[in-house]
Structure formats: structure tokens, C-alpha cells
Inverse folding.
């Protein structure tokens, strides 16, 4: 061996040794980590700075009795919407996974579709139906009876609509748990003499607790953060109040204080969830266990079918039929499409950019957390999860505060909208990549290394092809969520930059029923298709917001 | 006889023993590990402690030990997936790990067969085997792939994907993939643990003959002593990160260097004895003092069940406690007058009912004695 050669090897070896010893973070990883943490953590910091910069006076709003009412109303809305979603979601979850109901596969795929119908579209359809001058009241009055009999506006309407369009979270979570439960547990309960109904009540249901809690938490957080549906249904909650303070009264400080309270409530809910699971083990299933018992329905077939169809009818068939009816003809749909092609284009390109950037960052975070030891991965996972805890309205406000103060040249451009989507939905992309990476054993990368590939080459030739479907699923989730996002878009968009959700919201406020219905159909069509594809793949649907 | 040579070496320090074994053979050394240590968890857990050994070209070494003994870590240190805290590793005469030198896995010329096989699920059998042959030319590459697949007998399945293969077939593909680039050494991590029992015996034979045919130097890790004995030329027994003994399979079994090794590679009883000149007196008779131990010493004599014979005798002082029928033999547990229990393996057809009084006779070929610390004397 030539002496020069030896030195080269030694230098290369030193470099590698440093990399190995340091447990990974090369300069690129460090830079990426810092960048992502800055990106994700800075908006909330800006919010807090703005709150405390006002001193004690800023908190005077807290003494206002109106605020207690607001807290109470918002919590009541979220709690009852969650209960309503459980009532709607749990029976179909059991019927569609554990009985011999005919066509349950197709029904299960359909039952998830309300996730493609954002609650503000749901609110719009139910306003046309049950509003003070809605069809039901009009028909009732036409029949010669007295005044209006239903009014969807207000708290109860908000609960009704939010629960109706978020129950799939419960259905998916509980359904997955029911499908995966070990039949031996129920059989053991039967063997000690419990009747089937008691076995369900005393074994199956308690074991469903974590999935019900997880699904319920998603619904609860959704209801806390929702702006579109409650604003259309004229329920005054935190999000609408923040919007009001910001857009009508131009009071950023009040909006910031309200936002901080909402973030605090969200954080407490999240912590309560952690605590409530306790030390009990709910892990039931190991691979190789036989599939759960399927119960024959017998004479209960008709009631079960009715129950399922009522839920699906209220959340999928009826709203879609209403939208179709209101749109009128394909011509008017086409007309809306042509007239509104700019909104469509705005939605498509911002969502595409956000989904692509989120997927890249998500892969980076997931890889660091899964494959390298050290605190960087954990820290990144934690900060990227922040997006979950921050409602769109709050995120919008925080970004306005941040970029207005420090990066004014970004403020007022479409980049703001994209950053908003990115921060809010990054967790979905991280989740998609993580779920895929967990499936790829690190010995595959080691095998590639032992066959002459460098770390990068192993990642490119082995890991990446294997996790591509997971990344694609994550991309689609971020894309769908971004397409649907209303609150953050409303706050962050440059003047005149309308997206499909913004258009739907404005049209339904202006009672442009045809425009709102046609635009809604376009949005549902665009988001429904990828959603349907992901459901078929059984991907991490639970992450959908 | 393999055993006697080792007995003479017993008192010589470990590294000297390695050198002695080397000088007796003209074959070049492919792997040399010297004083290699590796800690985990910020230095609190010693995974591998000052391990040294060498493997000659074409030789198969088994690293044997219970789980957590450091055998897999040793393998990963050689492959380059772990960085040693201290010590030196040489592969094919090239230093791959020492102080400031650390060669990454892809530059070491080491083939690896993983416990899970780690076949690339998105590639066919052919593409898996071709994965390590990127640098080879077109025709040369095709020939080499054909050769490797032929060696493991899977030429007909080259178009299949890994999930379409049985466990044994996957194992063969993993072996072919590791062998294809003609590595200096092939490392196998618990290669048979994922196979059914009947398949395992077959694959043992096959892997041994494939490695022999390819003339490859190999190190494999196992917790199954039978596996190690069947396949390996040399067996290294690891315990708590230390190499307790490195020797031929026969020597490991018949003349273990410590009580740990004695127990790990087969069942054994340890009976107190007293050295008296040419003899060692024990409860069931007198054994020859084969190694010339100093008189007056209290020792524990290792007795394997196949060294013990039972003769039913009304005047016998020992009593049969239990009989376990194991198919090929009967394993008896016998209580000696002192209360000491001892095991004896007898023919499958030789049945002595529990409760029978017997005379115990020991006729070991190798009398191995341990001091109170469990070190062979």
C-alpha cells in the first residue's frame, strides 16, 4: 500500500469516527434541526411575547365576566360535540367490524367520507335545511302552521353539526381497536359465565377506552379549534371571538390574550389525556392471533342496517344530495368552475407546496427520531407536534404577530398561507414517515452498508423506496387538510387571495347558495378522492384533521 | 488428541494461546481482534471486554454464549456497525478499527447474514444478490450472480420476491447475497434462530457445506451449543463480554476452561473431590489425577451424565430419584449418600424404576477439576 493511500484512509476514518462517536448529527442535520425548531416554535413564542409585553393591563380582559361565559360555552360545545360524535360513531364501529352486516366493507369506506366534508360545508347544508328560512320551516309554514319550528343557529346547532362531521374519528379509532381485539379475551369472559352483552360491557368496552379516548380527544380538539362551522352557525366561541377582535376591532392584544387562553386549555386537555391512561396496559394483541369473532346479526340485521344508514345519511348522503340539488345543473357547476378557477388554482398550488415541503421536513424529522440516538430527534418530534395543539385562528394570529414584527417582507404574501398550512399539518407528515420508517428494520440499511453502500446510498436505494407509500400517504393527508383549511387562510391570505374554503365561507354568508354549493362540491371532489385512496390503503387516517 | 494439546496450554495466557494455535497452521490470518472493548449506556454496561482472537482463512468460528454475553456486539464491531472503545480490529491484514482509524462498513469487505435475513423486500432474489456487485462488469456480474445462486441451489427462483420464499430459502438468498461479492469474511448473526426445528438441522448441514465449498472464512453467533459444535472449526465461548475459552468443539465439551463453559455446552454435575497424590477421591470412587494437581487440594470434579454408569444393587448406597425418558436415552437423577445429586444418561431401553438402590460408577475419559472459583485446574 502506498503511504499516501494510508493517510487518506486514516483521514476518512477520523471523519467517520467523529460522526459515529457524535451519534450522528452532521452539520446538515444540525442545521435542519435548528431551522425546524425555529420555524415551529417561533409563532407561539411571538404570541406569548405579545401577551406579556402588554403587562398586567393585558389581562384586564380576564376579569370581564364575558370571558367566563366564553370559556363555558366553548367547553360545553366541545364536550357535547364529543359525546354526540361518540353516540354516532360507536354503534357503526361495532356493526361494521364485528357483525355480518351485508356490504360492510363499502359502508366502512363511505362512513369515513364525512372527513372529506369540512364542518363549514356541513353547516352550510344544514342552514339551508334547518335555518329559520330553511326548507323545513318554509314547508311547515306553507302547510299553514305557525312560526318556525327549528333553528339551527346557536349552540345546539353547533354541537349537532360538529359531532355529525367528526364522528369518523371515533369510528376509525374504535373500529381499529375492535378489529384488532383478541377474541380469546371475550371468549374467556364467556367461559367464566358472562352473557355476551356483559362480556361486551365488562371486557370489550373497557379495552376500547384508549381508542375512544384518542378519538374523543381528536373530536374535542377539533371542536375547540373549529372556526368555520361555528362562525356560520353564529355560535360565539373562542375562535370566533379572536377573529372578531382581530378583523373587526383590530385589537391584536385582546386577540393574543384570548389565543393564549385557548392554547392553555388545549394543552391541559392534552395533558389530561396522558394522565388518564395511567399504568393500565391495553395492549392486547400480538401477531398471529386469530381474527375477532364475527357475530351473526339474525333478526337484528334490519335495525343495524337502519342505524348505519341514518348516520351515513345525515353526514354523507343528505349533505351531498343537497349540494347537488342547490348547484342545479352541470352547467352551473361548470360555470362556477370557470368563474372560480382562480380560487381553485390558489388552493391547489398552496396545498401542493405545503404538502411537499411538509413531507420533506417530515421525513427528516422521522428519520432523525427513528434512526439516530440523541436529543435532536425527540426535540424535533415534540416541537413539530405543536401544530396539533394550536387552532388555525391562533396560528394565524401568531404568524401575523411574528412576521409583522420580524419579517415584514413575508407578511402579506401567499408564503404566509403556506407557512400556516405547513406548521399546522406538519405532524401528519411526520406521522406518515414515522409509521413507514418503523416498518423498515434498520438491519436492511446495515445490509446495504455491508454490501458496499454509504449511509446516503443505503437511504436512497433501500429505505426510501420502502417508505415511499407512507410518505405519499402523509403527503395526501397534508394536502387534504391544507385544501380544507379555512381559519388560518382567512387570517393569513394576502388581500384578494381567495381559496376554495374562503370562497365557500363568504358565499354562504352572502347567501349565494348556488356558488357555495358548487364550490363545496368541487372541494369535496378534490379532497374525497385521495381520502378514499388512503382509506383503501388503511393508512394513518386517524391523523386527519 | 485435540484435548490434550489444550490442557498443556491451559495455564498460558490467552493471547499466547491464540498465537500457539496460529503457528501450528500455515494458513494466513483473516481476522485479528486484539483487546477489543465496547461499553453501552454511557459506559455503564460493559458489552465486550478485552476480547482477543484470530480467525484463519477458510476457518469457521462460532461465538457461543447466552443472550447478552456480547457475541452479537462482537460481530457488529467486526462489521463496522459499532465503534470499539478500545482495541484493534484487523481484516485481511488491514487495520479497520484502532484509535483514530475507523473504516465504515461499506469499505471493510465483510459479508453479513442477519438474524432477520434483511432481504430487500422491494427487490427480487436476483436483484438482492446483485446488490453488492454494482462495481462488477456486466458479464462478470451475471456470471457471479449465477454462481452464487447455484451455490445455494436457488437458480430457479431468481425472479421471486423475498416474501414469496420459505424461511430456509430466504436464508439461502441472504447467504448468496453476502457471498456474492467474495468478502474476506462472512458474519452470520444467529442464522438459524428464525427457522423451525426440523428446517434448522437441514440448514445447518447446508450452510456448513456451502461455506466449505466457497472456502469462505466465517464467524457466526449462536446461543445453541449443538449448532456451534456441528458447524464450527473453533468455538469461542463468551460470558459477560469476556471470552472464556476458544478451542475446538471437542475440547470445549470435554475440557472446559471454567464451570460456566462446562455448564453452558452440556449438562454437568460438580462433585467435591480431594486430590491425594495420583488419585482424586470422590464420593463414588477414585479418579485418576490426570493433570498432576498438587496433593491435599479440595476440588470440584466435572461429571457429565454420559460418564456415569448405574448398577442396580440391593447393597448400593445411592438411590434413583427420577427417570426422564428423552427418546434417545433415559436421564436418571440419583441421590448419593451425602445427599449430593448426580445425573446419569442410560440407553433408551434400560429402565431402572425410581426408588431402586444402585451403585454409581464413574468412568470419565477426561477428569476436569475446578477450584472453588470455577476455574479449571
Amino acid at each position: 500500500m502506498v503511504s499516501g493511500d494510508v493517510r487518506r484512509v486514516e483521514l476518512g476514518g477520523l471523519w467517520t469516527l467523529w460522526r459515529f462517536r457524535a451519534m450522528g448529527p452532521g452539520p446538515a442535520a444540525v442545521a435542519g434541526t435548528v431551522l425546524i425548531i425555529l420555524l415551529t416554535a417561533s409563532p407561539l413564542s411571538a404570541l406569548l411575547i405579545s401577551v406579556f409585553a402588554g403587562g398586567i393591563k393585558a389581562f384586564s380582559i380576564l376579569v370581564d365576566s364575558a370571558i367566563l361565559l366564553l370559556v363555558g360555552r366553548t367547553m360545553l360545545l366541545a364536550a357535547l360535540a364529543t359525546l354526540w360524535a361518540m353516540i354516532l360513531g360507536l354503534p357503526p364501529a361495532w356493526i361494521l367490524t364485528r357483525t355480518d352486516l351485508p356490504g360492510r366493507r363499502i359502508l366502512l369506506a363511505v362512513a369515513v367520507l364525512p372527513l372529506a366534508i369540512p364542518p363549514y360545508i356541513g353547516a352550510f347544508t344544514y342552514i339551508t335545511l334547518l335555518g329559520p328560512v330553511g326548507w323545513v320551516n318554509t314547508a311547515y309554514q306553507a302547510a299553514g302552521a305557525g312560526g318556525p319550528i327549528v333553528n339551527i343557529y346557536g349552540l345546539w346547532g353547533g354541537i349537532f353539526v360538529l359531532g355529525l362531521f367528526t364522528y369518523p374519528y371515533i369510528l376509525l379509532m374504535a373500529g381499529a381497536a375492535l378489529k384488532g381485539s383478541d377474541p380469546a379475551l371475550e371468549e374467556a369472559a364467556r367461559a367464566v359465565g358472562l352473557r355476551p352483552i356483559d362480556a361486551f360491557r365488562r371486557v370489550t368496552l373497557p379495552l376500547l377506552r384508549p381508542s375512544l379516548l384518542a378519538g374523543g380527544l381528536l373530536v374535542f380538539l377539533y371542536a375547540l379549534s373549529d372556526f368555520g362551522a361555528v362562525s356560520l352557525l353564529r355560535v360565539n366561541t373562542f375562535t370566533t371571538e379572536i377573529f372578531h377582535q382581530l378583523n373587526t376591532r383590530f385589537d391584536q392584544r385582546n386577540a393574543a390574550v384570548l389565543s393564549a387562553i385557548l392554547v392553555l386549555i388545549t394543552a391541559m386537555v392534552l395533558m389530561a389525556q396522558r394522565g388518564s391512561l395511567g399504568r393500565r396496559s391495553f395492549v392486547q394483541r400480538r401477531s398471529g392471533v386469530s381474527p375477532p369473532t364475527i357475530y351473526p346479526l339474525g333478526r337484528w340485521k334490519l335495525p343495524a342496517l337502519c342505524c348505519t344508514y341514518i348516520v351515513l345519511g345525515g353526514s354523507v348522503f343528505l349533505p351531498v344530495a343537497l349540494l347537488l340539488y342547490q348547484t342545479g345543473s352541470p352547467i352551473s357547476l361548470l360555470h362556477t368552475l370557470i368563474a372560480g378557477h382562480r380560487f381553485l388554482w390558489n388552493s391547489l398550488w398552496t396545498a401542493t407546496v405545503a404538502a411537499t415541503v411538509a413531507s420533506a421536513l417530515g421525513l427528516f424529522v422521522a428519520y432523525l427520531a427513528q434512526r439516530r440516538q440523541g436529543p435532536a430527534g425527540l426535540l424535533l418530534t415534540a416541537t413539530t407536534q405543536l401544530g396539533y395543539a394550536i387552532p388555525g385562528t391562533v396560528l394565524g394570529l401568531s404568524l401575523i404577530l411574528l412576521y409583522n414584527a420580524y419579517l415584514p417582507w413575508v407578511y402579506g404574501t401567499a408564503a404566509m398561507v403556506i407557512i400556516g398550512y405547513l406548521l399546522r399539518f406538519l405532524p401528519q407528515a411526520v406521522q406518515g414517515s414515522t409509521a413507514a420508517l418503523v416498518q423498515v428494520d434498520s438491519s436492511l440499511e446495515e445490509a446495504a452498508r455491508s454490501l458496499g453502500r454509504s449511509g446516503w446510498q443505503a437511504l436512497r436505494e433501500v429505505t426510501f423506496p420502502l417508505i415511499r407509500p407512507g410518505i405519499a400517504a402523509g403527503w395526501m393527508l397534508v394536502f387534504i387538510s391544507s385544501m380544507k383549511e379555512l381559519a388560518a387562510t382567512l387570517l393569513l391570505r394576502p388581500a384578494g387571495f381567495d381559496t376554495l374554503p374562503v370562497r365557500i365561507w363568504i358565499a354562504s354568508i352572502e347567501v349565494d347558495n348556488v356558488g357555495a354549493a358548487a364550490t363545496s362540491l368541487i372541494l369535496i371532489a378534490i379532497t374525497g378522492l385521495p381520502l378514499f385512496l388512503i382509506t383503501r390503503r388503511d393508512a394513518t387516517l386517524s391523523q386527519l384533521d | 488428541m485435540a484435548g490434550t494439546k489444550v490442557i498443556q496450554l491451559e495455564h498460558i495466557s490467552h493471547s499466547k494461546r491464540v498465537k500457539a494455535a496460529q503457528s501450528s497452521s500455515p494458513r494466513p490470518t483473516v481476522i485479528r481482534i486484539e483487546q477489543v472493548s465496547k461499553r453501552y449506556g454511557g459506559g455503564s454496561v460493559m458489552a465486550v471486554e478485552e476480547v482477543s482472537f484470530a480467525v484463519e482463512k477458510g476457518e469457521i468460528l462460532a461465538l457461543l454464549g447466552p443472550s447478552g454475553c456480547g457475541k452479537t456486539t462482537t460481530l457488529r464491531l467486526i462489521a463496522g456497525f459499532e465503534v470499539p472503545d478500545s482495541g484493534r480490529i484487523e481484516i485481511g491484514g488491514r487495520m479497520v478499527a484502532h484509535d483514530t482509524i475507523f473504516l465504515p462498513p461499506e469499505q471493510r469487505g465483510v459479508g453479513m447474514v442477519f438474524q432477520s435475513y434483511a432481504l430487500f423486500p422491494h427487490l427480487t432474489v436476483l436483484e438482492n444478490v446483485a446488490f453488492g456487485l454494482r462495481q462488477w462488469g456486466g458479464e462478470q456480474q451475471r456470471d457471479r450472480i449465477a454462481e452464487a445462486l447455484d451455490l445455494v441451489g436457488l437458480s430457479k427462483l431468481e425472479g421471486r420476491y423475498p416474501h414469496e420464499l420459505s424461511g430456509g430459502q430466504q436464508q439461502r438468498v441472504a447467504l448468496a447475497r453476502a457471498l456474492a461479492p467474495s468478502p474476506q469474511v462472512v458474519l452470520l448473526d444467529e442464522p438459524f434462530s428464525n427457522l423451525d426445528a426440523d428446517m434448522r438441522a437441514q440448514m445447518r448441514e447446508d450452510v456448513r457445506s456451502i461455506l466449505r465449498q466457497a472456502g469462505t472464512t466465517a464467524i457466526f453467533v449462536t446461543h445453541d451449543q449443538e449448532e456451534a459444535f456441528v458447524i464450527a472449526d473453533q468455538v469461542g465461548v463468551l460470558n459477560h463480554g469476556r471470552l472464556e475459552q476458544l478451542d475446538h468443539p471437542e475440547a470445549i465439551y470435554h475440557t472446559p476452561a471454567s464451570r460456566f463453559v462446562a455448564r453452558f455446552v452440556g449438562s454437568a454435575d460438580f462433585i467435591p473431590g480431594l486430590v491425594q497424590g495420583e488419585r482424586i477421591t470422590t464420593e463414588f470412587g477414585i479418579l485418576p489425577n490426570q493433570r498432576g494437581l498438587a496433593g491435599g487440594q479440595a476440588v470440584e470434579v466435572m461429571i457429565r451424565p454420559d460418564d456415569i454408569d448405574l448398577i442396580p444393587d440391593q447393597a448400593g448406597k445411592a438411590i434413583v430419584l427420577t427417570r426422564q425418558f428423552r427418546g434417545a436415552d433415559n436421564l436418571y437423577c440419583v441421590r448419593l449418600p451425602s445427599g449430593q445429586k448426580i445425573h446419569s444418561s442410560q440407553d433408551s431401553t434400560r429402565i431402572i424404576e425410581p426408588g431402586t438402590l444402585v451403585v454409581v460408577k464413574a468412568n470419565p475419559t477426561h477428569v476436569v477439576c475446578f477450584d472453588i472459583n470455577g476455574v479449571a485446574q
